[in-house]
Amino acid sequence: MPACAYLDHNATSPIRPSVLDAMVEALSEGGNPSSVHRVGRRARARVDAARRQVAALVGALPAEIAFTSGGTEANNMALRGAGRNRVLVSAIEHESILRAVPEAEVIPVDGRGLVDLAALERLLAKPEPALVSVMFANNETGVIQPVAEVVRLARAAGAMVHCDAVQGAGKARVDLRDLGVDYLSLSAHKLGGPTGVGALAVRAGAAFVSDRNGGGQESNRRAGTENVAGIVGFGAAAEAARDGLDAAILRDRLEVALLAIAPGAKVHGAAAPRLVNTTCISMPGVKAETQVMALDLAGVCVSAGAACSSGKVTRSAVLSAMGVNPAEAEAAIRISCGWNTASEDIDRLIAAWKALYIRVTHSELSQARAA
Ligand code: PLP
Q1: 316 shares its domain with 203
Q2: What is the pTM of this model?
């Protein structure tokens, strides 16, 4: 466990002790689930148990779950495997959606960060049957999308629906059947499981063709020897996350405190339903990188907008799509809590943010006086 206030769970959530224990046991035992001997059968039993645990987290049937190498692979599989030539994606999707089908048509979002349902309806009016991909909750703002409404519009137009629930599962109630989607993507490391494992839920009866050649694993949906220990860890994390769905809400206390420190601060997506763990906030006039570094020096880990794979901070496409002005977007950091966040972590963040704000405003004042 890092000796800091780790408030970057949307980037990755620290592994839960119960997950680690389950994985060590599975790794020590080894075995290929396709082998017919006892070691193989035990590995198969572990994978099957994990499949039930992950299915239970999202109201799916175990047979509907195909394990993958993570959320990125699940998203790519859904967009390609649905077999629809026309794909509609929201403007705030993760890059693994936006880049999977570069020619996809984009559904805009409004200033609250919610997908524009009227625009979707217009796009769906074209006769060609489509696949619509709208995420459950956004990774930067935490804004929860009206997925059931999206499904209603899509069904009326004969379209299929994929939902990237990587950031929603384990943080809010996500139910495949209640949402009514055909495909649902999940990732273990966002809920206290290991990196490198995820799942695609394919609703029974929904079309799916794998473009991967190899063995018949995962009911022919994802060829390749299963990552048994990773899958076991995912199952344990899913079970723990299900038990912890009602975890205390620290977000509201945090936001009230930060807004009181810097009256010009702005919480993005505050007018929409949001995940209880996520705050995207701009400190007026202070670049996100400056904030992230200052907070890091004070032992607080947060991220600047989207955690970008190269480690470089670029302007947030999500905030741009919401119409946030560039100066505010460049000053936005993301604070995301999780299973091991304690009240003291929030106190530490508030104190460090306050110290930075006072430093910046004082140095601006002294510069103005000197000028
Ligand atoms: N989808 C969303 C919304 C995400 O936030 C992420 C990761 O940040 C992914 C997909 C990719 O998941 P993974 O890291 O498991 O590939």
Answers
A1: no
A2: 0.95
